UniProtKB/TrEMBL annotation, chain A:
Bias (Basic and acidic residues) ranges: 201-218
Top-rank taxon: Bacteria
PANTHER family named among the record's database cross-references: SLR1927 PROTEIN, SLR1927 PROTEIN-RELATED
Keywords of this entry: Membrane, Transmembrane, Transmembrane helix
Source species taxonomy: Bacteria, Pseudomonadati, Pseudomonadota, Gammaproteobacteria, Chromatiales
Coiled coil: none
Protein name: Uncharacterized protein (DUF58 family)
Pfam families according to UniProt: DUF58
Organism from which the protein derives: Thiobaca trueperi
Transmembrane region(s): 46-63, 69-88
From TrEMBL, chain B:
Pfam families named among the record's database cross-references: DUF4129, TgpA_N, Transglut_core
SUPFAM superfamilies: Cysteine proteinases
The name this protein goes by in its record: Uncharacterized protein DUF4129
Coiled coil: none
Keyword terms: Membrane, Transmembrane, Transmembrane helix
Domain Transglutaminase-like: 405-476
C-alpha cells in the first residue's frame, strides 16, 4: 500500500519535474537565465508586507484619508517594482557549472559554479541551492564573475551529476523570491568506496580479513617518506613521525620495485560487484602506495601494467565507471 | 539571555542595522509626540534609551520576563493615560508603545523586517492627526528609509553596502512614484466609512461660534488661522463689498446675542430684485460647525446644505473636513417684505436698556423724517463722537452696551454691531446681527483670495420699508483716524485686515508676504489636489476621458490598464541595455566614417590594417594621419590592454582629421 503511494508520489514528482522549465546550457557551456525560466513567489516577509498594506488600505479607505492612501499606494508600488527587480536580478545571469576533483564515495563532491554578470548591471544576493547545501549569497559586480563551490554528498560511485541547480535571489527587499533551475551536464567523478582491507592482489584470498601482505614485508626496503595523500593505506603511515607532531607522512618502500602485480576482478570471490569494486579500489590504492607496477583487469576492460599517479587515476576511473552488467556475464 | 533557538549567522542583524532601525522608528514617531499623552511619550523615551544603551552594553537589554513586565506596564500606561486602548488616541498610543517594545526584541533579521514593515503603519496613522505638506514630505523620507532598511536587511550587496542600499532604495522609490500616482488617482474611494472607531475630527478646529458676546470675535481675530479660500470666476469685487455671510442673530439677553428659534421649515423667500451676480468657488477649512460662508447674499444652495429664511447657508453635517463648493451671490439685492412675526422678532429688547440709550434713540427719531434717515443719524453718531476702534477694548461690566456707548467708547466690531442694533430696535426699526468675515487677502500667485479668521466681523441688518433687510456696518462709520492699527498689528501679527489697513511697505515685509502667499498657494494646491481628492473628482476625470457612464467599473478597468502600462514602461526602461559603446570602437567608427565621406568606405570584410593599406595606396596624401591613427589603434585594439591615454591620443588624432575627396 505504502509502496503504491510512494510510486504514485514518485511518478507525480517525476511528471512535475518534467514540467519545470530549466535554463539550458548553451554551446559554450554557459547557461544564461531566460525570462521564461524564472519563477517568482512572495516570501514570508512579502506576505507580512502585504497584510500590513491591506490593513493600511482598509483603514485609509474607511477614514477617507487620502494621505494614508497615498503612502499605502507608494509602499504597494515599491513592492510591485521590487518584484520586477527580483526577476530582473536573475535575468541574463550567466552560469557555468563544472565538476570538481574526483572523490571517493561517501565523501562530499564539490562543484564549481561561476556566476557572471554580463552587461552593465551588478547582480545582488545570488544564492545557489542544491538539496541541503546553500552557500552564502554572493554579490557579482557588473562585468565581473564570482566562483561559488557547492558540496554534494557522493553516495555512489560513477559520475555524480548535478541535475537541477537552483539559483535564487530575494533581492531587493526579500518580499519576493525569484528562482530558476539550471540544467547542466557538469559531473564530478566518484570513485568506489575503498574497502577497509583487501587481499593481496595476485592471491585469490576469499578472506578479506586475512592480514595483508604477509609475504616479504621485511624484505621491503624503506626508501623514504612523502606527505600523506588521500587514500593511502594507514599501514604505511609513519606513526612515529606523527607522534612527534611532524604531521602525517607515509613511509615508502622501495623493496617492491620491479615487482609487478595484476589486480584482477576474477580473482576475487565476493559475490556483490560493489563489494568487489571496493576491494579492487583498495588494492589499487595499496599498490600505488607501495609503488609497484600494477595492472587492472576488469571484465571487458584491461588497464596495462604501469606506475604513477596518472595510471592510478586511470584505474580508479575505470573502477568508478565500471558497468556491472558485464560483471554478471563474466562471473558465469 | 539565551535564545531558544540558535539564529543562523546570516539571519543575525549587525549592530549598525539595529541602530539605524531604532533611529528610524524614533524619527518616524517624533511628530506624534504633540498628540500623545505625556506619560506615553515618557514611556517611549524610556524604551528608546534602553534600546540605544543595549547597543553599547548588551546586558542592558531586558530578558524575556522583564520584557513581559514592560509590555504589561506599557499597556497599563496607555490605559491610564487615555482611559482606552481603542479610538484614535488610545489606539495610536498602544501601537507606538508596542512597536517601541518590539525594538527591545530584535534577535533576528526577521524581527527587524517586521518593524520596518510596521513603520508604514506608523506613518499612515499620523495622517489622522496632521495632514500638512511638510509632515508628508518628512514621513515620505521615513518611508524611503523603511524601504532602504529592508534592502539592507536582505543583503548580498557587495562591498559598498551603504551606497548600494541607498542607490537601490532610491531607484525603487523613484520607479514606484508613477505607479503610486496612477493608483492614487484611479483607486476607487468609499463614499461613506464602513465603520467608525471614534476618530475625533472636531478637535482643535477653530471657527465662528453661533452667538456673540463682547470679546467673542476679537478672540477669533487673534487666532490668525485661515478660514477659507475663494476663487472668483471673474475679477473679484471691491474688498469693501466682500461681506461673507454667516450666522444671523436675533435674540439679545442683555449681554449675549444668539440666533433664537427659527420657525421650523422656513426657507429663503425669493429676492424681489437681484443684480451684480457673481460666481465663485470656496474651499472652506474645517470648523466643526455647520456654517457655510457665502458672499452677501447667496443665491445657490450647494449639495448637502440648505438656505434658510435668514439666508444662512447650513451644511447638513458638521464640517470636519475641507469643504469645496461653488456659489453664486447677488451683490445688489432687495429681499422680500417679511411677515409681521419676523418684524416682531426684530424688535425684541432686553430689559437692560437704560434711560440714556432710550433718550438717544428718541432724539434720533424726532430728528429724522424716515427710518432710512434715522439709520444715517445713527451712523453719523458713531462717526462724530470719539469712538475708537481697537482690538484691546477696556473690560465692560454688567451692561456692556450702555457702558460702551457712553463711557468707554472704544471697542471692536461686536460692540458696534451690538449697540447699534439695540439702538435701532429701541427706535422702532427691526434689526438683527449678522456674523461673518469681511474682505480677504488676494493671493496673486495662486489667483485666489484668502479669508482669515482675523477677518471675522459682525454687522447689522435693518428692515426698512420698501427696501427689505438692508446691511448697515456701524464699524465702517468710525473715523479712520481713530482706528488702532498698532494693537491690531501686534495681535494679528502681520495680517492684512481690511479694516485695520495694515500696510506693509518695506521690501523685507513685502518679501515675507510673498513667501507667505507662496506657501499658502502650495497649501491650497495640496488641499485641493491631494487631501480633498475624492470620488467626485475621479468621476469627473472619467467623464473627461469619455468613460463617465462606467462609474466604478470604469475606474477599476482604467486602473488595471494604467498600472499594467506603467509597470510595462518601467520594465522596458529596466531592460534597455545600458551598454555604452566602447570608446575605442567609437573612435574607429568615426575614423571610418570620415574616410567614407572622403570616398573611401571600409569594406565589411576589411580589418583595420588592410583598410589602412588600401587607403594609403589609393590616397598617398593621407598616409601620415592614417598611419599615425592606426599605429595607435591597432595595438590598443588587439593588444593586451588599452589605456585612457591611448584613447585621448586617438581623440586628438581625429580632431584634425578631415580628409576631402
Amino acid at each position: 500500500m505504502t509502496g503504491a503511494f510512494a510510486q504514485i508520489a514518485a511518478r507525480s514528482r517525476q511528471s512535475f519535474s518534467n514540467l519545470l522549465r530549466r535554463v539550458p546550457t548553451g554551446a559554450d557551456g554557459v547557461a544564461r537565465v531566460g525570462a521564461r525560466q524564472i519563477y517568482i513567489l512572495p516570501t514570508r516577509t512579502g506576505l507580512m508586507f502585504g497584510t500590513v498594506l491591506m490593513v493600511m488600505l482598509l483603514g485609509s479607505l474607511n477614514y477617507q484619508n487620502n494621505l494614508g492612501l497615498l503612502f499605502t499606494f507608494f509602499l504597494a508600488s515599491v513592492g510591485l517594482v521590487a518584484m520586477h527587480h527580483a526577476w530582473f536580478n536573475l535575468l541574463g545571469l550567466a552560469v557555468q557549472v563544472r565538476g570538481g576533483p574526483p572523490v571517493f564515495a561517501g565523501e562530499t563532491a564539490t562543484f564549481e559554479v561561476t556566476l557572471r554578470a554580463e552587461g552593465q548591471r551588478p547582480r545582488h544576493d545570488i544564492q545557489l541551492r542544491k538539496d541541503a547545501d546553500a552557500p552564502p549569497p554572493v554579490h557579482v559586480p557588473d562585468g565581473d564573475q564570482r566562483l561559488v563551490s557547492l558540496g554534494l554528498p557522493a553516495a555512489r560511485r560513477g559520475r555524480l551529476r548535478i541535475k537541477d541547480l537552483m539559483i535564487e535571489t530575494r533581492h531587493p527587499m526579500q518580499l519576493f523570491r525569484a528562482w530558476c533551475y539550471v540544467a547542466t551536464d557538469a559531473a564530478t567523478l566518484v570513485y568506489p568506496l575503498p574497502a577497509r582491507q583487501a587481499p593481496e592482489p595476485g592471491h585469490d584470498a576469499g578472506d578479506a580479513r586475512r592480514p595483508h601482505r604477509t609475504r616479504g614485508e621485511g624484505a621491503e626496503d624503506y626508501v623514504g617518506s612523502r606527505g600523506y595523500r588521500h587514500g593511502d593505506s594507514p599501514r604505511h603511515i609513519d606513526w612515529k613521525a606523527y607522534a612527534r607532531e611532524r604531521g602525517l607522512f607515509v613511509k615508502q618502500y622501495g623493496g617492491d620495485q620491479g615487482q609487478e602485480v595484476w589486480i584482477d576482478w576474477s580473482r576475487l570471490s565476493a559475490p556483490d560487484p560493489e563489494i568487489r569494486l571496493g576491494l579492487l579500489t583498495r588494492q589499487v590504492l595499496d599498490a600505488d602506495a607501495a609503488n609497484v607496477r600494477f595492472g587492472l583487469r576488469l571484465p571487458g576492460v584491461v588497464e596495462g601494467l604501469a606506475q604513477g599517479q596518472a595510471h592510478t587515476q586511470r584505474c580508479l576511473t575505470r573502477l568508478a565507471l565500471f558497468d556491472d552488467t558485464h560483471a554478471t556475464d563474466s562471473i558465469h | 539571555m539565551i535564545p531558544t533557538q540558535p539564529i543562523p549567522s546570516i539571519e543575525r542583524p549587525d549592530a549598525a542595522q539595529t541602530l539605524w532601525l531604532s533611529l528610524l522608528v524614533l524619527a518616524a514617531a517624533l511628530p506624534l509626540t504633540p498628540y500623545l499623552h505625556w506619560q506615553v511619550s515618557a514611556f517611549l523615551l524610556f524604551l528608546f534609551v534602553i534600546r540605544l544603551a543595549g547597543l553599547r552594553w548588551h546586558t542592558a537589554l531586558p530578558g524575556t520576563w522583564i520584557r513581559a513586565l514592560l509590555t504589561l506596564a506599557g499597556v497599563a500606561n496607555c490605559l491610564h493615560a487615555n482611559h482606552s486602548l481603542v479610538g484614535q488616541d488610545g489606539g495610536t498610543a498602544l501601537f507606538v508603545t508596542m512597536l517601541a517594545l518590539k525594538l527591545l526584541e530584535l534577535g533576528s533579521k526577521r524581527d527587524l523586517r517586521l518593524v520596518a514593515i510596521l513603520l508604514g503603519f506608523l506613518i499612515v496613522i499620523q495622517f489622522l492627526f496632521d495632514q500638512s505638506l511638510p509632515l508628508t514630505l518628512y514621513l515620505g523620507v521615513m518611508a524611503v528609509g523603511a524601504v532602504a532598511m529592508l534592502v539592507d536587511l536582505n543583503g548580498g550587496l557587495g562591498e559598498a553596502r551603504l551606497r548600494s542600499t541607498l542607490r537601490i532604495a532610491a531607484s525603487l522609490s523613484l520607479q514606484a512614484l508613477p505607479l503610486t500616482l496612477v493608483l492614487f488617482v484611479l483607486f476607487p474611494r468609499l463614499n461613506a466609512p464602513l465603520w467608525s472607531l471614534g476618530v475625533d475630527t472636531t478637535k482643535g478646529l477653530t471657527g465662528m461660534s453661533d452667538s456673540m458676546e463682547p470679546g467673542a470675535i476679537s478672540e477669533l481675530v487673534v487666532n490668525g488661522e485661515l478660514a477659507f479660500r475663494v476663487r472668483f470666476d471673474r475679477p473679484p469685487p471691491n474688498p469693501n463689498q466682500l461681506y461673507w455671510r454667516g450666522p444671523v442673530l436675533w435674540e439679545m439677553d442683555g449681554r449675549r446675542w444668539s440666533p433664537g428659534d427659527l420657525p421650523a421649515g422656513s426657507s429663503a423667500a425669493p429676492l424681489v430684485e437681484s443684480g451684480n451676480l457673481i460666481d465663485y468657488e470656496i474651499l472652506l477649512e474645517p470648523s466643526g460647525k455647520r456654517w457655510l460662508f457665502a458672499l452677501d447674499l447667496p443665491l445657490d444652495t450647494p449639495d448637502e446644505s440648505s438656505l434658510d429664511a435668514d439666508f444662512q447657508l447650513l451644511s447638513r453635517q458638521s464640517l470636519t473636513a475641507v469643504k469645496r463648493y461653488r456659489m453664486r451671490s447677488a451683490l445688489d439685492y432687495r429681499t422680500a417684505e417679511p411677515d409681521a412675526r419676523e418684524r416682531e422678532r426684530g424688535l425684541q429688547l432686553p430689559d437692560n436698556i437704560t434711560p440714556r440709550m432710550r433718550a438717544l434713540a428718541d432724539e434720533w427719531r424726532t430728528r429724522s423724517a424716515s427710518d432710512a434717515e434715522l439709520v444715517r443719524q445713527g451712523l453719523a453718531f458713531f462717526n462724530r463722537e470719539a469712538f475708537h476702534y481697537t482690538l484691546l477694548p477696556p473690560r465692560l461690566g454688567a451692561n456692556p452696551s450702555d457702558e460702551f456707548l457712553f463711557e468707554t467708547r472704544s471697542g471692536f466690531c461686536e460692540h458696534y454691531a451690538s449697540s447699534f442694533a439695540l439702538l435701532m430696535r429701541t427706535a422702532g426699526i427691526p434689526a438683527r446681527i449678522v456674523l461673518g468675515y469681511l474682505g480677504g487677502e488676494a493671493n496673486a500667485i495662486g489667483g485666489y483670495q484668502m479669508v482669515w479668521q482675523s477677518d471675522a466681523h459682525a454687522w447689522v441688518e435693518v428692515l426698512l420699508d420698501g427696501q427689505g433687510w438692508v446691511r448697515v456696518d456701524p464699524t465702517a462709520a468710525v473715523d479712520p483716524s481713530r482706528i488702532d492699527n498698532r494693537s491690531a498689528s501686534q495681535l494679528i501679527g502681520g495680517g492684512t485686515s481690511v479694516r485695520f489697513d495694515l500696510a506693509q511697505a518695506s521690501a523685507l515685509a513685502q518679501f515675507a508676504r510673498n513667501l507667505r502667499l507662496l506657501a499658502d498657494t502650495l497649501d491650497a494646491t495640496w488641499q485641493n489636489w491631494v487631501l480633498d481628492f475624492s470620488a467626485k473628482d475621479q468621476f469627473a476625470l472619467l467623464e473627461r476621458l469619455g468613460f463617465g457612464g462606467l462609474r466604478e467599473y470604469g475606474l477599476v478597468v482604467l486602473m488595471v490598464l494604467a498600472v499594467s502600462l506603467t509597470l510595462g514602461l518601467i520594465l522596458l526602461a529596466l531592460l534597455r541595455d545600458r551598454t555604452q559603446p566602447d570608446p575605442l570602437d567609437a573612435h574607429y567608427a568615426r575614423f571610418c566614417q570620415r574616410l567614407a565621406r572622403a570616398g573611401l568606405p571600409r569594406r565589411p570584410s576589411e580589418g583595420p590594417s588592410d583598410f589602412g593599406q588600401r587607403v594609403m595606396t589609393q590616397r598617398p596624401d593621407l598616409t601620415p594621419p592614417v598611419s599615425r591613427f592606426l599605429a595607435l589603434y591597432i595595438p590598443a585594439r588587439f593588444g593586451p590592454r588599452q589605456s585612457r591615454e591611448t584613447i585621448g591620443l586617438l581623440a586628438s588624432q581625429l580632431r584634425g582629421f578631415r580628409p576631402h575627396r
